[in-house]
Amino acid sequence: MKRTAENQRKVVAVRVNPQIEQRLRLLAELTGRRQSFFLQQMIEGGIGAMEDVWLSPDVLSRVRSGTMPSRQQASDAISDLFASSMPNEANR
Predict the structure, then answer these.
(1) What's phi and psi for 88, nearest 5 deg?
(2) pTM summary value
(3) Which stretches does the entry tag as region Disordered (predicted)?
(4) Cβ atoms of residues 44 and 53 within 8 Å
(5) 41 with 71, same domain?
(6) Across 3-7, 19-23, 57-61, least confident range
């Protein structure tokens, strides 16, 4: 699959205690897989449970239906709103 802007994966950094890192490293070494593979599996397998616990039903339904804007989209809309109403330097 050719990578496009829509399907590129993002990097997320996380700090874990040394015992967890050691277990993850050992799992990867013994199976011949990368640590990132197992982290991806854990995230994909557990994010639904985290959403169920931490999000309100209203927000959860919008997230899962795809109608919840990302924080970046929301901040872009706000900055565009203010940028379009601000006088430019030439008109001052």
Answers:
(1) -80, 165
(2) 0.64
(3) 65-92
(4) no
(5) no
(6) 3-7
Range of 78's domain? 57-86
Assigned token pair, 16? 């874990």
| Burial (CB count within 10 angstroms: exposed 0-12, middle 13-18, buried 19+), residue 86 | exposed
What distance in Å separates the CA atoms of residue 52 and residue 37, rounded to the nearest whole number?
Answer: 24
**Distance separating alpha carbons of residues 90 and 80, to the nearest angstrom:** 19
Instruction: Name the token pair of 31.
Output: 């199976």
- Does residue 79 register a pLDDT over 80? no
pLDDT, tens digit, for every residue of 41-76? 999 999 999 999 999 999 999 999 999 987 766 566
